[in-house]
Amino acid sequence: MTGTPEPISPDARRAFEQELADLRAERDAVRATLQGTDADAVGDRADQADELQRADDTARLDARIAEITDRLDGAATAPAPSPDVIGVGSSVTVRFADGTKESVRIGELADDRDQELVTADSPLGHALLGHRAGDSVSYRAPAGPATATVVSIAAPGGT
């Protein structure tokens, strides 16, 4: 690690900015419920527990907002990935030890809707970064050690 934040892709920047806007709106809604209470009012234990939960929610939201803000403030926009070396944004075809081939795209943020996405911080994604077609990589899969060979690298949106 260099101590400076890794560059992020334009898509990841937009996703972080959207998450930041959503978190700020949620935080404002939670804070409004905290400000709307009368500190001198007598309430039961359920009211007090609810108030503590809202305060905890606010602290959690504030922490995530600070984390995203720091990430966005300190990171440059990543250049387009090289067609020769695997980086964030690369589309890669790999052949696993059992002979099966799979095409994956290296991304920064998990997306349940994108079945081809492998995050850069996942074991396979991390192992692939910086490699070229023909390289073999080793990584730790849930079932144990695994290997894969890079068959090809395609430009983003390419085939």
UniProtKB/TrEMBL annotation:
Gene3D superfamilies on file: Transcription elongation factor, GreA/GreB, C-terminal domain
Pfam family, one: GreA_GreB
Residues in Transcription elongation factor GreA/GreB C-terminal domain copies: 83-154
Matches recorded under SUPFAM superfamilies: FKBP-like (SSF54534)
PANTHER family listed in its UniProt record: TRANSCRIPTION ELONGATION FACTOR GREA (PTHR30437:SF4)
Lineage: superkingdom: Bacteria
The protein's name: GreA/GreB family elongation factor
Organism: Kitasatospora paranensis
Transcription elongation factor GreA/GreB N-terminal domain segment(s): 7-75
GO MF entries: translation elongation factor activity
Ranges of biased composition (kind: Basic and acidic residues): 42-55
